[in-house]
Automatic annotation (TrEMBL):
Keywords: Disulfide bond, FAD, Flavoprotein, NADP, Oxidoreductase, Redox-active center. GO terms for molecular function: thioredoxin-disulfide reductase (NADPH) activity. InterPro entries: FAD/NAD-bd_sf (IPR036188), FAD/NAD-binding_dom (IPR023753), Ferredoxin-NADP_redctase_2 (IPR050097), Pyr_nucl-diS_OxRdtase_2_AS (IPR008255), Thioredox_Rdtase (IPR005982). Belongs to the class-II pyridine nucleotide-disulfide oxidoreductase family. The lineage of its organism: Bacteria, Pseudomonadati, Bacteroidota, Flavobacteriia, Flavobacteriales. It catalyses: [thioredoxin]-dithiol + NADP(+) = [thioredoxin]-disulfide + NADPH + H(+). The gene is trxB. PROSITE patterns: PYRIDINE_REDOX_2. This is Thioredoxin reductase. Transmembrane segments: none annotated. Pfam families: Pyr_redox_2. It comes from Mesonia sediminis.
Length: 326
């Protein structure tokens, strides 16, 4: 059990170091909230596992994901953000307006924070096949909107039967020559409207009862061996890209029973704000967004969270704090 004595107290704790966390940090630091960012297990977040980012405004030539995240960190640090490598492993959130929240770092040290911005993101699910894991970044991707363009006029495949898979399959069909879509059941989970879009798109080859047997290729994806899970029949196709669209898991385990979340575990925010059900606790980025999941939308909500936190701090400030701030 971690010890709770001799606690450091900060104004703003930001959990997570993706575009949402660092954008929140830039705004919070400029508002003199002296934010501390805890990076989590994957400093820089999901973008560090992508190669080229071509759709973030302001980079006409594109930028590679890891470089972009280093630059975002540097920008946040320039205004006084403290970035610490570490995981927040437990929280004790105060229900009181103006109350102090507690967070445990790496199961060891507790810190106190007047506000917390949660930007812990979501993790794309993968199939778990060794060949798939080996070729991640070499043609296996979990984001068609991020990486689809690299497969322009080529043949690709996508796995999944939900709304994401259906949406991404039609997105890819606009760019690529042919999209083979593998759905493991004899029906799709996606809405009827999305299913209709898939079945009416000519260059989507929809395969029901079909799963990935092996991703083929040494350094990069060169093909796919599929298996029909009813007949056992196997078939190989040539592809250069494989997109996995079988869902995401929001990283919210440590907030269970304290923050409101939907059935899938995404944090619920109030109206158009980033406020959670706990005063002084805000959520930004993919951890509260299962629909858009883009770096730019995450950054936008990171900015909103910092502004919401700043307003909250101003609203609960004691007269002495107001005097010292002026
Ligand atoms: P879902 O959980 O809805 O769907 C996941 C899909 O992946 C299912 O078809 C599932 O199959 C399949 N799957 C899961 N594991 C495997 C596996 N190991 N191998 C093969 N297939 C597998 O996730 P989504 O990301 O599609 O959607 C998440 C939420 O976001 C949903 O509520 C969705 O409605 C929403 N959304 C809405 C959009 C919109 O409105 N425009 C766009 C995108 C998402 P099975 O059915 O057999 O379990």
């Amino acid at each position: 059990m971690a010890e709770e004595n001799k606690m450091e107290r900060i104004k703003c704790l930001i959990i997570g170091s993706g575009p949402a966390g660092y954008t929140a940090a830039i705004y919070a630091a400029r508002a003199d909230m002296q934010p501390v960012v805890y990076t989590g297990m994957e400093p820089g977040g999901q973008l560090t596992t992508t190669t080229e980012v071509d759709n973030f405004p302001g980079y006409p030539e594109g930028i590679d994901g890891p470089t972009m995240m280093v630059q975002l960190q540097q920008q946040a640090e320039r205004f006084g953000t403290e970035v610490r490598i570490g995981m927040i492993t437990e929280v004790k959130l105060s229900q009181e307006v103006g109350g102090v929240h507690k967070a445990c770092v790496d199961n060891k040290t507790w810190i106190e924070a007047q506000t917390i911005i949660i930007s812990t993101g979501a993790t794309a699910k993968y199939l778990g096949l060794p060949s798939e894991q080996r070729l991640r970044g070499g043609g296996v991707s979990a984001c068609a909107v991020c990486d689809g363009f690299f497969y322009k006029n080529q043949d690709v495949a996508i796995v999944g039967g939900g709304d994401t898979a259906a949406e991404e399959a039609t997105y890819l069909a606009n760019i690529c020559n042919k999209v083979t879509m593998l759905v493991r059941k004899d029906e799709m989970r996606a809405s009827k409207a999305m299913q209709h879009r898939v079945t009416s798109t000519k260059n989507i080859d929809l395969r029901y009862n079909t799963e990935v047997d092996e991703v083929l290729g040494d350094q990069v994806v060169e093909g796919l061996r599929m298996v029909n899970n009813q007949t056992g029949e196997k078939e190989e196709i040539k592809i250069t890209g494989l997109f996995i669209a079988i869902g995401h898991k929001p990283n919210t385990d440590i907030f269970k029973d304290q923050l409101e979340m939907d059935d899938a575990g995404y944090l619920i925010t109030k109206g158009k704000t980033t406020k959670t059900n706990i005063p002084g606790v805000f959520a930004s980025g993919d951890v509260q967004d299962k629909d858009y999941r883009q770096a730019i939308t995450a950054a936008g909500t990171g900015c909103m969270a910092a502004l919401d936190a700043e307003r909250y701090l101003a609203s609960v400030a004691t007269p002495e704090e107001e005097v010292s701030a002026s």
